[in-house]
Design goal:
alpha+beta, Hypothetical protein YwqG fold, ten-stranded antiparallel β-sheet, two-stranded antiparallel sheet, 5 helices, 13% helix, globular, DUF1963, DUF1963 domain-containing protein, YwqG-like_sf
Length: 285
């Protein structure tokens, strides 16, 4: 994947300044096939560990949640607004990999997915220095191969990080609508968004937001899940994209039918390092 910013298409050139104003940095994550040996290292999957004075998060049924991902921020480039160090752990319910299916996408749905009953984010401000068993709480070992909806194909993968930048994409609804309002376009916002992404898609450097990352703009395959009145205040914390089935030299992730998993946090909570209300969903169920 290229580190270059896409060139602004000729068809959108009259809004060059407005598009450039949407530039946002993020931490791009590349997954590696070799599982890290250090239990506090950044990784996808594997067994969960916490200091002995903490418990592994449990779901709405009281069952331990599997560890989806762990990010050691001491290994990451710094990102404005994010913690400068520590450990972020992302847990999701085993059933349907944390997905919650509402009858309607409304405030009740949103309250459910931020409740901590289907997913949970744990933040440790400093990375523990111990790996002694008697000083750890060890989570239940989950075999992803036995979990139909879990996206990792049974693998535990390492992570490599780099800083990138991106323009807003049309699937990030509140951010794109804010950008659209600056263009003065008389075209319908939906049609404008289709033309926007299609114009950029001719450039191989344009991902439309689809990659593994911390921060930046989210991407969706079935529409933005942020349904609250303050949707624009819920920012992307972590995104895990679908890739492919693994081969001998690669890693594989697949959410349902090539969906995307997103964790969102209110910007005020992020500023306070309060991860008790984080919304999680993945699409293409």
């Amino acid at each position: 994947m290229s580190d270059k910013m896409p060139k602004i298409p000729e068809s959108l050139s009259e809004w060059t300044d407005e598009i450039k104003a949407t530039i946002k940095p993020f931490v791009s994550i590349r997954l590696t096939a070799n599982a890290p040996e250090n239990i506090w290292a950044s990784r996808i999957g594997g067994q969960a560990f916490l200091p002995s004075n903490m418990q592994i998060p449990v779901d709405i049924d009281g069952e331990e949640m599997p560890l989806l991902a762990q990010i050691n921020l001491d290994e990451c480039p710094s990102l404005a607004g994010f913690p400068n160090g520590g450990l972020l752990q992302f847990y999701v319910r085993e059933e349907m990999a944390g997905a919650y299916f509402p009858e309607e996408y409304n405030d009740d749905y949103w309250n459910a997915i931020v409740s901590g009953q289907y997913s949970r984010v744990v933040y440790l401000q400093s990375v523990p220095s111990t790996e002694q068993p008697d000083e750890l709480t060890c989570g239940k070992f989950f075999n992803p191969e036995d979990m139909d909806e879990f996206p990792t194909y049974g693998g535990c993968y390492g992570m490599e990080f780099s800083i990138k930048q991106e323009y807003v994409n049309a699937s990030a609804s509140p951010e794109f609508e804010a950008f659209y309002s600056t263009t003065g376009s008389e075209e319908d916002v939906f049609d404008f968004g289709i033309n926007y992404d299609e114009s950029f898609s001719e450039d191989d450097n344009y991902t439309g937001g689809s990659e593994h990352k911390l921060g930046g703009y989210p991407a969706f395959t079935q529409g933005d899940i942020r349904v609250t009145a303050d949707a624009g205040d819920w920012v992307l914390l972590f995104q895990l994209d679908s890739t492919s089935e693994p081969d001998d030299d690669d890693v594989g992730l697949m959410w349902g039918d090539a969906g995307i998993g997103n964790f969102f946090i209110h910007r005020d909570d992020l500023a306070k390092l309060d991860f008790s209300r984080v919304a999680f969903s993945w699409d293409c169920h």
